[in-house]
Amino acid sequence: MKRILIVDDAATVRMYHRKILVDAGYAVEEAVNGIEALEKAIQTTFDLFVVDVNMPLLNGYGFLCELRKQDVPQSPAIMVSTEAADSDRTLAYQAGANDYLIKPVKPKQLLTHVRLLLGEVRE
Amino acid sequence: MAFIKNQTPEPINQEERKHERDCPNLLAQLSDPNPTARRWAARDLINCPQSAVPLVERLKIEPDVSVREVILTTLTRMGDPDCVAGLVACLNSEDAALRNEALEAMKQLPDEVAPIMRTLLADPKSDVRIFAVNILESLRHPEVESWLIEVIENDQHVNVCGTSVDLLGEVGTEASRKPLERLKERFKDEPYIQFAADLALRRIYEN
Fold first, then answer.
1. How many CB pairs under 8 A join A and B?
2. Could you tell me the residue range of the domain that residue B142 belongs to?
3. What is the architecture, at CATH level 2, of domain A3-117?
4. What would the DSSP string read from start to end of B114-127?
């Protein structure tokens, strides 16, 4: 079973993403900020990260920048944000994101992007 | 034989203040090339009224994380209207880190931020309205629920409403029930709103 780490400070968003992913057959873990996510990513191998941008302590950009410096499997990451500006999207890719979705994400949309990045379907 | 203590000079403290501490000097040191001098200046400007504006201007361009932290601490300790206005301006920044820092600083200023909350919640930019709702999370003000209800009844932006629903799940009472049901109807094609509103309604019912 593929393992996905959801990183978001909003509990409702984590629960929503968790439900979508668990119902689709993925194993899911959660982190409430970038620091907790980094600790988990170093301890455990995840196949994918679903990461919010704005979080306290260490935001999504900071988390991905740090993650990409670590000697751990560099699994793909989807950044999920309320911010639709091109500059935010560019920052996400520069930080190490592989995909960028605007909140609120619809279940089918999230699963399509997850499956693409996990190589479960062809583009 | 008497023991003669080796006369070594006192170690030089790198953090030692090297300039006068009057306000004009401190303001000038905010632009010093040495981050230690900038950090001391940012800290000592707490005693200089009307330094909020230059502190906020420095915050916008300050590259050193530790200096930024001290500037934010000074601004939150000062907490005057200029500080709050400067932090609000930072919420509009293109710099995500600065936006986050301003948001966290404003959460430390509940009494100062409360009077401008209606203005923030009516800001033309949805991002600023979302930040305003995020600030409400830690405001613990008696008006929080009524402000959130106003948002979910009137705001057209799905993410502003979604963020408000998250918080209503924590602070909402029976007064939020009908507005949440109307929100579900207004955004009936948005699965996230349906999910979050149902969760909030369940929590309100359980409480």
1. 57
2. 109-207
3. 3-Layer(aba) Sandwich (3.40)
4. GGGHHHHHT-SSHH
